[in-house]
Amino acid sequence: MALNPTTTRDAAKAFAPDLVAFTPQEAVPEALILKASTVVSQSGIGDAPSVLVPWVREESATWAAEGAELDLTPPGLSQVQINVRKVTQFFTVSNELWNAEAANNPEVLSTSSMRAVTKAANTAFVQGVATAANPLVGIANTEGIIEGGNITTSLDPLADSIAQIEANGGAPSVILANPIAWGRLRNLKTATNANTSLLGAGTEDQGKRLFGIEVITSAAVPEDQMVIIDKNSIASVVSQVDVAVSEHAAFRNDSTALRTTWRLGWAVQHPDRLA
To answer: What are phi and psi for residue 197, nearest 5 degrees?
Structure first.
């Protein structure tokens, strides 16, 4: 006798709610955490658990004579703890708006929600301040970061900061800049009353690069600031981005609810490789 099991196709929607999961690279490609850190895990965990990332401090090597007993150098085993928090947006719209003909409102609203989540995540990643609800500290507020000083008429402070990061064992891989700060850099001239941009003399004028390092402009960076980053010095955890739709949460209002959630966290291993 053939069996006809009940499936998600036949069941009431409450038994098979709409949930779409995206990789962060697809859903939030503009997220700075993906561009300025090293993602070590992509698992969605709760507020209580944390991710422990092992790493090894660079201990000094020693010289030895032929046949001599070798010096014992314990490995510099260490770890960094990453707390993970959830950023989310939730709203309801009338079913008339959600199902409007000649419009693609569900896709538009979902995309808008993911942009909002990205904006909040970027702001926290760069300039977040630890609170009881969210212990994550923005990289620009990390204790021990190099203070590069003010750029006035030359790029010397920028060059010195890059050199200091390299002297500390880092390799600058990206520069995050506020758009206003980037614009002011482009306004620097080679000399008083000159019309030639300083960025075209000895650096690169094509594209957003400084001293060969990619520059990413973002309003999440505080105005008039730039952050030079060795992305290998920041470990991060990101989950998939979940977009869920329900017609039951606001059933009495004849409305549809949309919820977007994303979990992420980060920790700086070498603050002296950021400036």
So the answer is: -70, 140
Q: Give, in order, the Cα–Cα distances in Å from 30 to each of 25, 40, 110.
A: 8, 18, 16
Q: Taking the domain 19-55+79-273, which CATH number applies?
A: 3.90.1690
| pTM given for the model | 0.83
pLDDT tens string 64-90: 988 898 888 888 888 888 889 999 999
CA distances (Å), origin 215, targets 69, 100, 150, 222, 231:
50, 41, 18, 15, 13
Q: What percent of the chain has pLDDT over 90?
A: 45
Contacts of 7 (CB under 8 A, 6+ apart): none
pLDDT at 205: 52
Listing DSSP states for 159-184 in one string gives HHHHHHHHHTT----EEEE-HHHHHH
- The torsion region of residue 182 among left (phi > 0), alpha (psi -120 to 50) and beta comes to alpha
- Reply yes or no on whether the pLDDT at 42 is more than 90: no
How many whole angstroms separate alpha carbon 71 and alpha carbon 60?
A: 11
Edge-to-edge, what's the strand order for the sheet holding 213-217? Answer: 209-210, 213-217, 174-177, 226-229
The structural domains of the chain, with segments of one domain joined by +, span 19-55+79-273
Residue 103: the pLDDT is 73
Contacts 24+ apart (CB under 8 A), 13-16: 13/247, 13/248, 14/248
Position 87 scores a pLDDT of 93
153 Cβ contact partners less than 8 Å away, ≥ 6 residues apart: 188
Residue 79 confidence (pLDDT): 81
Residue 162 neighbours by CB under 8 Å, 6+ apart:
172, 211, 213, 228, 275
